[in-house]
Amino acid sequence: MEHTLLLEVPENVYDVLTKTAEQEGRPREALAVEWLVATINRLVYDPLEEFIGAFSSSVPHWADDHDQYIGKSILEMMHSKEGEDG
Asked: Where would you tag: which of 4, 12, 14, 47 has the fewest CB atoms within 10 A of its CB?
């Protein structure tokens, strides 16, 4: 079942949505629905949710900054790999 929503969005959100929709040749509304569905699905169906609180860590702010820690680790691995190849 589908429902209709009337949303008021900030101008910067509207501008990004409009520009992206124009670049993709799609209606703004279709793109907005796609983004909204993707965001909700990511929040609701988090594959790692079952592990939340399962491990103790001495890393401060792990829950808030995990993407930064993972990205930093990947970057360090890439740099060490480059050193091995070079």
From this structure: 4
